[in-house]
């Protein structure tokens, strides 16, 4: 089977949210895919690993352009259906994770029923036969 090639067109939205009394900002980058027929992350297969990796790579590039260099304090991930209001694939890039507010920590928490990190998704896809 030939490797999948993706011609991607991105729309990137950035939202700065005050998350503490000292107004530290949470950077939320959402990378939306256009011209790619991809549903949510549950509809992906092993052949979509390069697509997920490209989304993460794009997120890292955006962070670097915005002077976010500590990738250990960044979370890359996806809402896990049925807990998502947008049904097409998009990546959330959250930084700094250590300063996220209560609601963001709840919505984007690790090992939850409604959010999966990009690493967890890649691992899951690679384990498919």
From TrEMBL:
Which InterPro entries does the UniProt record give?
HIT-like_sf
Q: Which UniProt keywords apply?
A: Hydrolase, Nucleotide-binding
Q: Which family does it belong to?
A: Belongs to the HINT family.
Which catalytic reaction applies to this protein? adenosine 5'-phosphoramidate + H2O = NH4(+) + AMP
A Pfam family that the UniProt record links to this protein: DcpS_C
Protein name (record):
Histidine triad nucleotide binding protein 3
Q: Which Gene3D superfamilies match?
A: HIT-like
């Amino acid at each position: 089977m030939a490797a999948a090639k993706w011609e991607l067109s991105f729309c990137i939205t950035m939202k700065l949210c005050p998350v503490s009394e000292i107004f530290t900002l949470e950077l939320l980058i959402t990378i939306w895919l256009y011209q790619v027929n991809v549903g949510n992350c549950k509809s992906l297969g092993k052949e979509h690993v390069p697509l997920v990796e490209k989304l993460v790579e794009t997120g890292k590039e955006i962070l670097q352009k915005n002077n976010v260099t500590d990738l250990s304090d960044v979370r890359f991930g996806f809402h896990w259906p049925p807990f998502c209001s947008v049904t097409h694939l998009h990546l959330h890039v959250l930084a700094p994770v250590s300063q996220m507010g209560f609601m963001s920590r709840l919505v984007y928490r690790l090992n939850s029923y409604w959010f999966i990190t990009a690493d967890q998704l890649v691992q899951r896809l690679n384990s498919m036969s």
